[in-house]
């Protein structure tokens, strides 16, 4: 009976964590470049249940032979194995702001490949993002809303001096006296990226390669546009309702076990 407690409780915990992931997706439904997370549920290893019994042999001494009868397997619960980000392209929204930019996926030689803007955090470390909601700071540098510097193809900060600029479809920022290719990185497997929050990702080890130097990769940059999140509100709301119903079902099972234990301890086991 105690095994049932653990199984039902693990189901409640798994659905609660799934609900938290879905809630975070909805909270970021309007965040530019946000990629929704999907929870992967996995069952704990199954156990083989046996019944221990004995059989009395028809002899004068009533000899008992111990026997084990296999009943079958039973699951020991479920848990959230990991949260996997969905890096599919979000829809484009026109803002007409010259500092807003959207990456548009083209041809990718790898099914799990992806491209990202390169930015630099205050510690000087490179991070990657799909959020092109940029602005120009007081020093004339192109930065993100968090104040991270947007990098060029060579890994340098982009200084605009507050001058109006245009961005070509190939991702080149054009100023009156110079052209600066934006830093666009490519990864063959987006699942290698580690989410940091605020739309930023990092990688362990070496930095990502320049997307322009990879064979078979095509992309474009749309100035005056932002890539919206890829959260499907209707689907997410449906999944949240499903997670709530499953949590509720496990809760009722747990309550039934609790009532059975109460009867076993306080009624059946009572000494009169």
TrEMBL record:
Give one Pfam hit by family name: Flg_bbr_C
Family annotation (SUPFAM superfamilies):
Flagellar hook protein flgE
Q: Where does the record place the Flagellar basal-body/hook protein C-terminal domain? A: 222-266
GO CC terms of this entry: bacterial-type flagellum basal body
Can you give the residue ranges of the Flagellar hook protein FlgE/F/G-like D1 domain? 113-173
Q: PANTHER family in the record, alphabetically?
A: FLAGELLAR BASAL-BODY ROD PROTEIN FLGG, FLAGELLAR PROTEIN
Q: Which family does it belong to?
A: Belongs to the flagella basal body rod proteins family.
What name does UniProt use for this protein? Flagellar hook-basal body protein
